[in-house]
Automatic annotation (TrEMBL):
Name of this chain's protein: Unannotated protein
InterPro entries: Bact_solute-bd_prot1, SBP, TAT_signal, TAT_signal_bac_arc
SUPFAM superfamilies the record matches: Periplasmic binding protein-like II (SSF53850)
Species of the source: freshwater metagenome
Amino acid sequence: MKDKVGAPATDSSDNGVNRRDFLKVGATAAAVAGASSVGMAESASAAAYNPKKFAGTTVKILLVDGERDQEGIKDKISYIQKTHGIKVEVTALALGAQLEKIQSVLRASTSEYDIIDNLGFTVSGVVGGGLFTKLNDYIANKELTAPTYNYPADFPAGQLDYTSRYDVANNKFGGKDVYLIPGIHSGSVIMFYRKDLLSAAGIPVPKSWDDYIDAARKLNTGGVSGTTMIAANDVSLILVDWYARFASMGGKLMSGTPGAKNYKPNLNGSTAVRAVQHMIDCAEVSPKGVGSFGFTESVDAFSRGDVALMLCWSTIAGSAFNPETSKVASKIGAVQIPGDANTTGRPIRGGWGLGIPKNLPKKRKDAAWMVMQYITSASFDKYQMDNYQTDPNRRSTYADAALNKKFPYLKVAGQAMENAKMLDVALIPECFELVGEAAREFNLAIIGSQTAKQACANAQASWEKILKRAGHLA
């Protein structure tokens, strides 16, 4: 049963500023990097845990809109007030608007928000720029952290080295210093399919990319499209559909390192071209207008029963298993993405990390940690997944028997999380600018304006120009 909302919460689509419009922002994370230097977290105490230590305070949270992250927190506002004595206010903005807001509040003298959710692909800019509070002392503080919190053991190791731990001194992911806690959701990419259609046609679940396109062509009949994909000029064209193909075809995106100034893309090689061509081939057996599809359009088409096969973020498409929102909930299955015979389907690592801005007074940081600890707890993680099907952050949620019975894809999503690979260019603040350039070129190929080879050559040239401008490539 959901708690009654007991305090104001604000949601905004910001008049259409969405993931696609976010491409116009370019290297927003790069603009944040270097805005201030990192500082030490506050000292730990050996006193007993006191959940109401900061009663009477208000904590403001900034999230992304459109991914259902705010819903569980809004449900639990009255619970947080009752348990911790803290009033919570939630603002959720579309991705582009959220990123711009993060820039402004982290560069202000004092942050407007106490807790900010950060997309993993932007961590190198905002955390690497020293703009968030180190959390190690909070986690170790027995007065401020519940004994059941179970960090880091209950989190996938790869996720901790992506949306939690960061080595600011050497500007790289991982290390011992904690700046974020994975949340509100993590997730990777898996394959969704119509069990009934494959069975009726006598087609096995695709295990390779050749299997995938063959199955899509055979199933493209009777008013059902063989597949769908994110083919719009949208960052998820790269992050979901292209990179899933490229990496599991054995592709290596980058060579060299940014520090050595020899960080060079491999976008014009045969594997990159093959991955784009596979998407062009899939477009021929996709719904009309797939060249303008983002993940919302793809998931909606799949949930209506219009599509047989689909790759998508599991945290987005998990709703297809919900009979209240999907006409095919009882007819679908989920597996790991396909891969070539000499590789394994290794999807991209996604997810978000919650952090406390450095530019806050100590009392606000302390109260923020009390709330952040709850909204990244095992109990809240399970609640959010159960009610809104956002991908969990904790291993215990992925393994929960009742949730797996209710949502059969959950175990598959958990396996994908353990196996997922961080996008190579997430190492640098220009990550999304690069992804946006490639998405634009590959979209033009999918809609027939250029060949796969031309698209890859153009993307290669754009990436090299950006990397040279940023000093990562001589």
